[in-house]
């Protein structure tokens, strides 16, 4: 069985049809003998006809509907006595919002409780690498000195080291990172020479670092004059003797530099280091 039509006897069919059209949607259409028809979306036809047209006694009709929210049914929020439309009354009781039209017919709207949505699935990202790759470059001059740079103060740290930085993710190799970092940090365009050392550096409360130390070659006076620091990262630079470098550097960093200088002088293969100390086999 399918409900196709609801017939309502009304003292003012047109006014009542417009009232319900405002609530349920649709436009009233006049018909014969003073009738007005309403076709709300998703509902049966409503026929509002003058009282006595069929010989039946007019009675009160009650409509019980459900809605995802009260506003969706055309009835705004409001307490008892609120008037969403002329001649209507709104009353909240028993979990329903009741709306009475000017002739006493009642529309009872029950709000459907929202269905709790499932928590979004967290898709795990790729695991972090076990270590961070670094590229450092060892520059010397004709007087046996090395180029050191000091990072901008961070938590009051006084940190000196060889110029260089982190290898970026993707296709960058440590050697390419060395070229890029030297250009960015000190403004020199240099292709580093051979690899002098690889140092596995442990970091407290952080991932370890695999530091590649490359031979940057000698710097002449004109090279030194062209040095331009990246002020966001570096505070100063200086050429230091090994003794001066040892006084400025932390012990593991000094060990890394000392072993790299030894490889540079001897012309041997790269040193394998752990925290600046030759690895034990």
What this model shows, in words?
The chain has 281 residues and is of the alpha+beta class. It is built from five helices and 17 strands. Strands 12-9-14-13-16-17 form a six-stranded mixed sheet, with helices on both faces. A hairpin with a 6-residue loop joins strand 3 and strand 4 (45-50). It is rod-shaped. The termini are far apart. The model is unreliable at 78-83 (pLDDT under 50).
Summarize the topology.
Blueprint: E1 5-10, H1 13-24, E2 29-30, E3 36-38, E4 45-50, E5 62-67, E6 89-93, E7 96-100, E8 106-111, E9 132-140, E10 146-151, E11 160-161, E12 164-166, H2 174-186, E13 195-201, E14 209-218, H3 221-225, E15 234-240, H4 242-248, H5 251-266, E16 271-274, E17 277-278
Parallel strand pairs: 1-4, 5-8, 9-14, 13-16
Antiparallel strand pairs: 2-3, 3-4, 6-7, 7-8, 9-12, 10-11, 10-15, 13-14, 16-17
- Which overall shape is indicated by the principal axes computed on the Cα atoms? rod-shaped
Strand order of the largest sheet: 12-9-14-13-16-17
Order of helices and strands: EHEEEEEEEEEEEHEEHEHHEE
Oligomerization = single chain
Total DSSP E strands:
17
Low-confidence stretches: 78-83
Strand percent estimate:
25-35%
Give the mean pLDDT.
Answer: 82
What structural class do you assign from the helix and strand content? alpha+beta
In whole angstroms, the N-to-C terminal distance is 89 Å
